[in-house]
Amino acid sequence: MSEPATNPAATSFPAPTISLPLGLEVLRTYSGALVCLEILFGGLVWILVASSNVPVPLLQGWVMFVSILTFITSSTYLALLISGLADRINTDWNFVDVVYHFMALLLYFAAFVLEAATTAASNIQLMPNTTANVLCMTYPTGNICTILDKRQYRVNVAATVFAFVVTLCYFCSMVMGIKRWRV
């Protein structure tokens, strides 16, 4: 008896689609460098928000969640590219790259806005030339009023700036991913 004919489509999978180089060569591309910057500056946002003792947990909790989540996922994504495992997983990596960076851009933009709102809502000023520390609070212009000391204020300003930089990095990565995906 002869063996039954096998369907070639059932026994083979399409090759993974990836236009980024694998291994350490990925670090020589603009996309690889941007992922490294996303990890570096995202880690700084995480550290800065955590070091401010999170004075507004409702707003800054989201910033912490986003910074930790994207730090872990970007590190995993870079590890997949460097280790070459992306070549063994059959998927359209260019599409995954675009979707991931778009979602991270949305999350980080929201985190940036919330961190900026937390920092901008600090309307407390210490009165100089007094024997006691007297807090003078102006009327809040919005719905949020936070009480930050000078150190927390400075740390939150730095976290806001780095959150904006990370947002720009994710935007640039998404634009370059769209160009790779379309080609």
TrEMBL record:
The chain crosses the membrane at residues 30-50, 62-86, 98-117, 157-178. The keyword Protease does not apply. The keyword Oxidoreductase does not apply. One of its GO terms (molecular function) is structural constituent of myelin sheath. Residues 26-182 form the MARVEL domain. GO terms for biological process: myelination. Keywords: Membrane, Transmembrane, Transmembrane helix. It is found in: Membrane. Pfam families: MARVEL. It is a multi-pass membrane protein. This is MARVEL domain-containing protein. It comes from Channa striata (Snakehead murrel).
